[in-house]
Amino acid sequence: MGNKNINKNSIIILLGLAGFIVMADNWVVSPILPAVAQNLNIDIAKAGLLITAYMIPFGIFQIIFGPLADRYGKKQVITCSIIMFTIATGLCALGSSLTNLAIYRGLTGIFAASVMPISLALIGDIFPMEERQQAIGTFMGISFLGQGLSMAIGGTIAYFLNWRGVFIAYAVLSLIPTILLIANYKKISSEKNPNSKILKPYFILLSNYKSLFTYFIVLLEGIFIVGSFSYTGSYIAKIYNFNYFSIGMILTAFGIMSVIGGRLSGKLANKLGQKKVLSLGLIFASVADIIIFYFGSNIYLLVLGVGLLGLGFILTHSTLLTRATGFAQKARGAAMSLVAFCFMGGGGVGTAIGGKIIVSYSLNSIFIIYGLALLVTLVLSFLLIRDV
Asked: CA 222 → CA 127, 256, 309, 351, 377, distances in Å?
């Protein structure tokens, strides 16, 4: 439905800024982990627990926040969460031991979990179906630009300041969407369903083949696309021996093409149909992995591959997200939480499997294996999702 109280493009920018900060925060610890370990006088293996402390609650609370937003209101829950996210991020700068820093990162992960699914549910409420894919694509593109820039941002700030400065900078940056949300709070419409349950919507969504198969493809997308992207920075470091800033700049091609593709996805879907856009996305992502595998030693072709991976991701994901917004209007928060859970969970699984592949074969081999797996995912999408 439409919203006359706030410009729809403004709400996309507002939510996109929140998504940008959260997705950048997802990866912020990786480049500063050695500095944290040295400062707290612990080894890298123990410091790695900070990543786990964030990711576990981030994954679990994806499932919880959607139904909460359906029941108590999307703008209410996301505004409260982004305020708490800002505070928790700032607290991380005060961490004096592994224990309290892990607690602060855990709190950050809890409240960060709300932003993506609730933002997508809000977009589903505000935008009619013919405008929804472009809106979702734009939001996701801005958000994943944050992920692409995260290593460069974190590495640069840590280089000129220290690891605590990274968390202070992120807390300050997150004040921007926080203030904008508070300032526009009354202008944002937010549907409530007081009778919404926590688990019941998920049973309904997973018992319907149409939604079940969509979530399955989202899971595979997360495994193979996020799994590929997770090791792209390591691949660049190994081949070129670049620093974090240079690696981050190359990975920015993923985010830039996500933004461009996000703006194009809705227009392409209206012109070609969602099924063709979904197919194009999976093909582009597959070709990107294959380019990196065969031609990654050529810097120009490497950048092309990273950019194409971003384009493939956004065309695929925006199509699947748009489809999911239509599954349960009264429980749209739950529907989008399940998408986020499958996608992020798939990314975690893909990253873990990728680690095993690297140990058994080589770092480079993950790209050809996941590239071919994306072609299998394309075939499965044809067989399982016939009505997009």
From this structure: 25, 19, 12, 9, 11
Q: Report H helices in the chain.
A: 8-26, 29-40, 44-47, 49-72, 74-92, 98-112, 115-126, 129-160, 163-183, 200-207, 209-221, 227-230, 232-240, 244-272, 274-295, 299-324, 332-360, 365-384
| Half-sphere exposure in the Cβ direction for 60 (13 Å, CA) | 11
Has residue 34 got a pLDDT over 80? no
Q: Is the separation of the CB atoms in 213 and 384 below 8 Å?
A: yes
Measure the CA–CA gap between 318 and 237, rounded to whole angstroms.
Answer: 30
Arithmetic mean of pLDDT over the chain = 86
Q: How many CA atoms lie within 13 A of 66 on its CB side?
A: 30
Q: What is the pLDDT of residues 120-172, one digit of tens each?
A: 888 888 888 888 888 998 898 888 888 777 767 777 777 788 889 889 999 99
Q: Which residue has 């990253």 as its token pair?
A: 351
What tokens appear for 299 in the block? Answer: 């810097």
189 or 65, higher pLDDT: 65
* Alpha carbons 125 and 191: distance in angstroms, whole number: 8
Terminal alpha carbon distance of the chain: 21
Residue type at 248 in one-letter notation: G
Indicate the pTM of the whole model: 0.81
- Cα angle, residue 138 at apex, residues 135 and 141 outer, rounded to 5°: 145
